[in-house]
Amino acid sequence: MTNELAISILKPICHVEKFMSDINNMPLWTGHQSIFRAQGNSFKEIRLHAIFDVVVSSMRCNDKRVVITFHWSSEMLIYSVDIMLKPTSPNSTKVMFDIDRKKFDSENLSIFLAELRMLKSIVESIDYPEKSKDRYLINCHHMNLYQKDIT
Q1: Contacts of 96 by beta carbon, 8 Å cutoff, 6+ apart
Q2: Which helix (H) or strand (E) holds 71?
Q3: What confidence tier does 11 reach under pLDDT thresholds 50, 70, 90?
Q4: CA-to-CA distance for 151 and 148, rounded, in angstroms?
Q5: Which position among 8, 31, 36, 117 has the lowest Cβ density within 10 Å, counted as fewest Cβ atoms?
Q6: 3-class secondary-structure state, position 111
Q7: How many domains does the chain have?
Q8: What is the CATH number of the domain that holds 53?
Q9: What is the pTM of this model?
Q10: Strand arrangement, sheet containing 51-60
């Protein structure tokens, strides 16, 4: 069972793409909070049991959609997450990704939604009532990611 998780951001797609493609912004809205610049334009994410190389890329599609790929790799594990941006008007962008609900429990889905709400809040420069709860969920998720043994 696959379901789309999405949020609308009231900014043009180019603005959202620029923010999300900047790896320095990841710790602001995701659980990936231990990312740092290694050398030149390379970035790493340190965890208790591994150090990952982290790369963010974006690809423009012919129908004006943009796919942003977040890619992590280490000696033990390689994985990627694709997030699609779709313009819904000149000043609005739908940010979405498909989630296989068999792979993720309701707690993980709550974290993904919290990250999307945090992204919207930062990009639009707005506040929302659940922001401190979302930040708490994201910080707890970071601690789980940091400690996770991938061996």
Answers
A1: 4, 5, 6, 7, 83, 84, 86
A2: strand 66-73
A3: very high
A4: 9
A5: 36
A6: helix
A7: 1
A8: 3.30.530.20
A9: 0.89
A10: 2-9, 92-100, 78-89, 66-73, 51-60, 43-46, 35-37
